[in-house]
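pls read this stuff:
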Amino acid sequence: MKKMNNKGFLLVETIVVATFTVTVLVALFLQFKNLLVNYNDSYNYNTVQGVYDLGAYKKCIQITETKIKTSDSKPYQDVTTIGNATCNRIKTASHFKTIILTNSDLGTLKEYIKNNPDTDLSQDMRNMIKSLKNIDYQDRLIAEFEDGTFASIAYGVNNK
């Protein structure tokens, strides 16, 4: 038998295998990147301890009958310094960095932080707010802890 020139077949086979390999590697990279982002979000946002600590602080400021005082220019109130001695002990023990109280719809708050990048909120706090989803509550307490974790709980029920 006469052997034919197989250089063209070898080139096509190499291109097909290389394309398949690159496609598989890109798909794996995208999946692992997705997993990493979701893992970081679940580790940093709404940890059990963070939600528990924020719930304790919420009860404390509700006892002191803190009213939400927002304005048209700022749809949230920094409540880090509000409260009595008990609230201050909770705040110190929980290692809160920033606590805000908002009565605005999350869409309004997200629009505000998008249009005002120089707010007193950290970039990580703004990223956390962007990740929140609207639920049946409007009033919301959002906290940033000194260890870089965040928590968000409902402060009151939407009365629509």
Strands lie at 77-78, 96-102, 140-145, 150-154. The longest strand covers residues 96-102. The radius of gyration is 25 Å.
